[in-house]
Design goal:
Elements: E1 3-6, H1 9-16, E2 29-33, H2 34-40, H3 47-54, E3 57-59, H4 63-75, H5 81-93, E4 96-98, H6 102-110, E5 115-116, H7 118-127, H8 133-145, H9 155-164
Parallel strand pairs: 1-2, 1-4, 2-3, 4-5
Length: 174
Amino acid sequence: MKYISSDTNVWIDFYKISKTQLPFRMNCTYIMFHEAIEKEFLYPDDLKSQLIDGGLLGVELTTEELFYADELSGKYKRLSVYDRIALAIAKKRKITLLTGDNALRKAAASEKVKVIGTIGLLDRLLNEKCIDKKEYRDCLVRLKSLIGNGIRLPEAEIEARLSENDVTDEVLPL
């Protein structure tokens, strides 16, 4: 089974477009430090339960991960405790990190940890035939329409994918 260490912001992106369950179609397990699940998913109220119902797995930290997360605090001042823990889990377990947080993505690159974000996850869902082109386009259009309203994704990357897939800006109803 393939595991992915998860940060919170990508889940919020999927929640905002009413597609929280979409990533769970992939053949992998998303993991997150159990305390982060409890403390980071306070709003929206139902997001935590949707993720747990979908299969988000709370995990304990190993001693090695705990010490490594502490070590990261000296190197990356802009990362929160839970960001450092998600990175430590990914690094020590040699798995991908799911995040859209720019500071965390840069730290992961420095630590040689593979990262995937919201757009990359959508690409993978399409490539692995977990979603069809229509659903893929719908997600991209919805995300694009919310940039600046809680969504902080690179509009140029979304535009490029919409152009590649010959997509109109038609949005399906929620």
